[in-house]
User: What shape does this take?
Amino acid sequence: MDRRTYTFVVASAAFLFFYLSLRAVVAPPQPEQGPLADQAAEVTEQDDENAAAGEPVPPTSEEVLGDGDAETEEGGIQSTKGATKWFTIGSMDPADKQNLLITFRNQGGAIERIEITTRNEEGRFAYRRVDTRSGYLGYFAGRTNAQIDGVTVNVVGPGTPAALAVATSGEKGIQVGDVIVAIGETPISSVNDIQESLVTTKPGETVTVEVVRGGPTAKTLLFDATLSEHPLDLIRLANYGGEDAIPGNLARLSCLVTLAQVGRKEIPIGERSLQTLADPETQMWTASQQTGDDGSQTIRFETTIGSKALQPIGGEAVRMTRSFTLNPQSYVVDMDVEVVNLGATAQNLALRLEGPNGITPEGWWYSNKISPNFSGAAARDVVYRTTADGHRLVSGMTLLKEARNDPKDPNYAIFASDSGEAGRALDYIGVDAQYFAVAFMPPEDKTSLGAYDRASGTIVADEEDVEKHKERAVNVSYFLNGKTIEVPPGQAFGQSLRMYAGPKEPELLEQYGIGDFVYYGWFSFFSSLLSGLLHILQSIVGNYAVAIVLLTVIVRGCMFPLSRNAAVNAQRMQELAPEMKKIAEKYKDDMEGRLKAQQALQKRVGFNPLAGCLPMFLQLPIFMGLYRALSVDIDLRQKPLWSPNGWASNLAAPDQFMYWGDWMPEFIAGRGTGWLGPYLNILPIFVVVLFITQQKLFMPPATDEQTAMTQKVMTIMTLFMGLFFFRVPAGLCIYFIASSMWGIGERLLVKKTLPKGKHFDLDADGDVIDAVATKKNAGSGKKTLTEKLLDQVNQKPPETPVAPPSKRKRPPSKKKR
Assistant: This one.
């Protein structure tokens, strides 16, 4: 590889990875947007009669708080009110064929946690947590018990190891209200103790869980629980997640709802609720659950906001109802909200619906999401589509910067009521992570969410506490303010939408009209094509690592003619280098003369300097397309190089040969704060070694001090690139290794196939001639094609025999000449 070509390659690669490593701090401001679908609904006749007769309406939030723990069960419908309780829909049991397990809390009436429980053909989780290999017992929404040392269990998901555990005395399943006091030999006194006790365990192992089952006849039970893999907790509270729990991020429920406007009073700028109302996360709701004949599961929340809270702002009592419905084998949750005017006069009302937050920050310290913005993306970003703007991404870094610039108004305006109809026509809005997304979509019978009065992105974090170099992991969300609607007494208005919570599988996203969540960038055509070919190869060989190697060989093989032409051109460039240097010295102070002389030389020998670069420009879209296909493809996630539980068990992450975060300094091994990260990775070292090998094998020897210095700088640049490669996913490293090995073999092969000797040489007068043709025609008296061309270029007259002076009679006539 010649010096110029290699410089171009190294500079391009360095620029690419430097660009991918940039962190967005500035993004262009984007317009604002808003309302939900509203529908008229009638209150039941009984409610009308009660309101007219002045009879008591359903309890207010203040009254609900004191209702105790009453719980009823009628007709398969379970309901509860009063104390804080947790509920689930979905299941982890494969027999239930559910893709999700969702945990709710009635204090807030919203989502606390979503786990993806989809199984693959082998019965394992199709999407497990890749940052932990320990066993999983279940999520308990645990709280430290005030009476004994232990953790009180508040929820047990169906099909979890805790639910399937069997006690030595015959009881099946850990239950709500049990107090976990020990796991194995480890005593439990906090939620963190539960996680710590399982760190050294493996999926499939059986552990003993000691619990105290309460009541007057409290007894101790010993359960044997077989641990499972850790399912991906797509939504989780920010303080739950081990090493990915970033300081500054706040733990908040997802999809909260409250009143955005009552009468002429709106939620103040920078606030989350009306001044006379409590934080929506503290609002108490009653809850009921029901299972449909089709296997669907629904949870319904209801609360009443009394006149005591609303009269100071000119309102009367309202009743709010919301429901979440999940169907089997679905990643979509149907959500409905209804508000009933319980007052005696019409009221102007509007709803605020908060979006999801706590989306998995998986791989935030090494992954680089491809973004449509030059400013890049964070681990979690807000994405949306409106008629006016199309698909847009608002980086989490931009949201954090907005909050820091103006803490009193930390929200990033997506659109407002004055943005125009097209600007407020919202097709979808969601939170986007590297391989997963949670998004609000229109109901099944509509193509658009409708027009909102306001939409804003926001961080769910204390901006002052988010540490430097960890900003990419900031927790983000958004909110939507619906239209203000005049609701007559006894009438209702509602909003219906769906929420997608699942993987960014292209075919799956296209079904719901959110295919733009998978973004390849400028070279999407090549990315899609090569991604499809990769999947075909994987289906044949059964291993994605081998498929990546085969794909690299196929792509590089198809481009071999271009590579050979580039190699030939590089060799000719090396042969011309001494003459170009002479010209440079001759025209040291005359740039224009130097350029003309060099161009004349190149023209005379038939050398086109662009011929070496052109193949590279033709290859660039293909290489970039392949690179981005491997960067975005979720199918590489948790796919191993060899063993699913060993080294390089996740091709979408660094190979993680050895954990060194415990003993390496923070500036090297810190998550986000370190140069290299908490793991020693082997594949990036191979990549850099191969790059340097290519440089040493194909770069010509230095002819002067300047050239020698340039080569040293290029070597240092190659080593420096290793810092960027150190966090590159293993699948991409395999691609670069295969490509580099192919490149070395290709250049060695091309070198053997090139013509022997020089392509051109200099004659006695210093003119360039075709060396190959000269050898072929030596002694024949024939001129080479280059010599003939030089005659024309230099306008030399044909050579004629000249007689000796003594025999010359007269000058040749003009006719003879």
